[in-house]
């Protein structure tokens, strides 16, 4: 019996060794990879480098799209009216986890195309950034770094994480990994998640979270937290989740760490809270507008860490993505449920 061919189109850069891994999954997969039409990565894990296609290349790429049954990522020129460009596409695997806004922009609301995301791939590097942010402020690193630059030696007092309360808003793969790393430091960990009851619960068996709250318990967690980690997806419900009232409920000594999306925090009152001592500090891998505008006061605040939405991009990201994609390729070939199914209705 002749096996039918499944056309797989790779639309973001990978090294040849990883493409070979994909090709070896199943003989039915015809994997097409055209790096000459995807640009040169600027860093490891760069999935959307800038590029220009000639008219001939654009026509060739359009033909590849029209025949693809499976895709890894969507190149930026193809995102507009995407479903109409891919009449045979049945499954799209993405390299990102937070893809809700992108899926709407691509016109996927009424599409039958199955979408899977990269949930879990970025949990470890993001959780390590949260831990770094907490230690950075606990050890008063901004002051110590200034003292080092001034060649000035003066003994001082630092803080510890032991005994402090960490609030985690969003307990998906990233939030759970943050809790796992924080608990051995002797921290009390409080979690907020959409599916939890309204009142706090005792520590679930096998969990690194000491108490769980539903959305109505957010203020309780904000008031109790010495550190607050935002790990939730951007959805209609989470945009502007932390506004002026929520920020004012936090301790003046608290530090906010945002690895979610900049839109989760109302930026104007947030900046004011940092400027006027109503928050002690912030570690931000995301911003309301990206790139962060050059005139944003956040750049020059001594109590703010700014990183360029890069704390999820570990050096081994593409290896991890390839492992996930190859597992899903095997599942697809076998007719089994795919991992990391994205649901547009809930936004993640």
Written account of the structure:
The protein is built from 11 helices and 12 strands. With 348 residues, it is of the alpha/beta class. The strands form 2 sheets. The protein has a 7-stranded parallel β-sheet, with helices on both faces. Helix 5 (123-138) crosses helix 7 (173-182). The radius of gyration is 22 Å and the shape is elongated. The protein starts with 5 loop residues before the first strand and ends in a 14-residue tail after the last helix. The model has no long low-confidence stretch (mean pLDDT 95).
- Total beta strand runs: 12
| Overall outline | elongated
**Largest sheet, if any?**
7 strands, parallel
Percentage of β-strand residues: 5-15%
Which value, in Å, is the CA radius of gyration?
Answer: 22 Å
User: In percent, how helical is the residue content?
Assistant: 25-40%
N- to C-terminal distance? 40 Å
What is the spatial order of strands in the main beta sheet? 8-7-6-9-10-11-12
